[in-house]
Amino acid sequence: MKWKWPEAVQKWKGALGSYQSVLLVIAVGVVLLLLPAGGRGSPKKEPAPAQTEGADFDLEGFEQKLGEVLSQVEGAGKTSVVLALDGSSRQVLARNQESQRDGGGSNTVATVGRGSGNQDVVPLQTVAPQFRGALVVCPGGGDAQIRLKLIEAVSALTGLGADRISVCQGGG
What helix, strand, coil percent values describe the chain, rounded to 5? Predict the structure, then answer.
């Protein structure tokens, strides 16, 4: 026995038959709008980034990573590294410069509006801090060849001269 649809459904089915593809596109659009923003690969809305985002240098993380790498030098053993910095990282900001005919002018920091009255500065570049010195402590620090290898490695990674790098023998 064949099942029969009620007459009202049959009438609607006949009337909507010619618009079937349009209704399908609308239904898919509604479903996509209801999905969370992160599910479609678009960025999630987060609070405005802080002015110093990316400007902070992770000194402890760099010291730890450098210590792990130096520990792989043959004969060095477990290595600890302490780095000293001159100052901290800073940002170079974009500036608006206006000059006047009489030789005067103004120099202001450029800003970008973020809506709702919020303004952010426009960073051009982040200048990393400069290293002042380094201390490397390891069990193999008493051997001249190992000490030379460690000084060369630290110098290559930090830009410090050999006179600013100290390698000491320590317990393992």
Answer: 40, 30, 35
Mode of pairing for the β-strands spanning 123-127 and 118-121: unpaired
Angle ∠(82,136,85) on CA atoms, nearest 5 = 30
Secondary structure letter of residue 108 according to DSSP: E
Joined tokens for residue 72:
């792989």
Render pLDDT for 107-146 as a digit per residue (tens, 0 to 9): 666 666 666 667 676 666 666 678 899 999 999 889 999 9
3-state class (DSSP) for residue 126: strand
Query: Is 96 strand, coil or helix?
Result: strand
Task: State how far the alpha carbon of 128 is from the alpha carbons of 8, 89, 90, 131, in Å.
Answer: 74, 5, 7, 9
**155 pLDDT band (50/70/90 cuts)?**
very high
Collapsing DSSP to helix, strand or coil, 42 comes out as coil
Residues for the chain: how many in total?
Answer: 172
Q: What is the CB neighbour count within 10 angstroms for residue 32?
A: 10
56 CB-contact burial (10 Å; exposed 0-12 / middle 13-18 / buried 19+): exposed
Contact 126, 54 (CB under 8 A): yes
CA distance 111 to 97: 13
